[in-house]
TrEMBL record:
One Pfam family it belongs to: DAO
Regions of compositional bias (Polar residues) in chain numbering: 1-19
Protein name: FAD dependent oxidoreductase
Keywords carried by this UniProt record: FAD, Flavoprotein, Oxidoreductase
Listed InterPro entries: FAD-dep_OxRdtase (IPR006076), FAD/NAD-bd_sf (IPR036188), MTOX (IPR045170)
Family: Belongs to the MSOX/MTOX family.
Annotated SUPFAM superfamilies: FAD/NAD(P)-binding domain
Upper taxonomic lineage: Eukaryota, Fungi, Dikarya, Basidiomycota, Agaricomycotina
Domain spans labelled FAD dependent oxidoreductase: 35-384
Amino acid sequence: MHSWLSSHLNQPTNSNSPTAHPVIPPSSSPAMPGKVIIIGGGCFGLSTALELVKGEYKGHGNLITVLDRSSTPPAADAASSDYNKIVRQDYCDETWAKLASEAIREWSTPEWAPYFAQSGVLVLSQTSHAVGAAYVRNAYNVNSHPSMALDGRLAVNLPTPSAIKGVFGNDALSTAEFTNEVAYINPQSGWALARRAMDMVCEQVRKAGVRVMGGEVDSLMYDSKGGKKDVTGVRLVDGRSFSADKVVVAAGSWSAKFLPEIGKELLASGQAVAHIQLTPEEAAEYAHVPVVFRMDTGFYIFPPTPDGIVKFAIHGPGWINPTSHNGHPIPSIPKEGHYRLPQEAIQALKINLANTYPELAKKEWFETRLCWCVVLPSLFTPRNPLKKQVLRVPLE
Ligand SMILES: Cc1cc2nc3c(=O)[nH]c(=O)nc-3n(C[C@H](O)[C@H](O)[C@H](O)COP(=O)(O)OP(=O)(O)OC[C@H]3O[C@@H](n4cnc5c(N)ncnc54)[C@H](O)[C@@H]3O)c2cc1C
């Protein structure tokens, strides 16, 4: 790390002191890339840092600083900090499906394969749910097209209940009967060990010289000279301030705090998640099941992690937390420390779990959380079956 950068970042200044700005001096050479601050060390912030040090900032990682509320990002309540996440190309939008296909190719490389399980994703909906069923059919059409084949494999239609039951890899497993469903399985999709993969990304960017540090950003600093409003750095809640040539806001569902102008577009929605701990014997029974993702109710459930943890959740109706920051109203940002699920969410999870794996529905849950992610109201397409379900329900 350049000594000037490390010394300045190691010695936080109080923004009220006359020596507060600039903390980081301007670039000494026009050929040098500028200094970058990334707010947020979640999936997007750390991936941005990784991409920069592989490209334009190769050999200049020390010009990049990732600031996060946690000194070991992602923070425990970040969306990216999770046992697992679905990695699926099962969208009915071709562009999204192709992007996801590229991601799956990357996940399958030796570098990332240890964090990726290509379990397949079973995508289904009750035929009576018009929008959900249409989504399944459209996503199948996209994902069964020969251009989407990875390793020669494509989405497989499952036209009967027995065909659906056949994908669970264990005839003795107690599952739903799956009558009146439209369904397919995509063997290319799967899931990732989310937190562990993020820890690896964090390690890689640190090795490349990127400074990853704890520090809660309060606001962006602006220079409004010449009628042009430029972001010049960030101010932290503890009074420190850091200057940079470029500031990347990657604060996930907290981003509206810094960008109140587009707060309505960055609506944080709390999604209900719960977990069950399996015994080693139970984990072996469920070891070869795919991710199950329902397009009618938004329910999804994972195979067990290597530690026997089964995560299940509902993607759809969310809970919001309207607040204000520095005098600006914010339609919703995460309610921190809120792990108790609303009753309505508990009921929906229970019903969906019993309708998928009746035996698992008898087990106790060991952890629940509202996991916050941004929903972009203006990006919802008419083909998104969950569009109408996003509830603007204030969190109690
Ligand atoms: C319940 C749930 C399930 C999901 N399932 C899937 C899935 O299966 N597959 C999938 O692909 N995607 C899934 N997603 C979406 C995915 O998790 C998110 O798109 C992704 O993790 C967002 O990453 P991020 O970096 O934008 O935000 P986050 O991971 O939330 O990270 C934001 C970071 O910013 C930091 N931060 C916030 N405010 C400040 C501040 N003031 N100063 C400094 N740092 C700050 C936070 O501490 C945090 O570490 C899911 C999301 C949720 C909520």
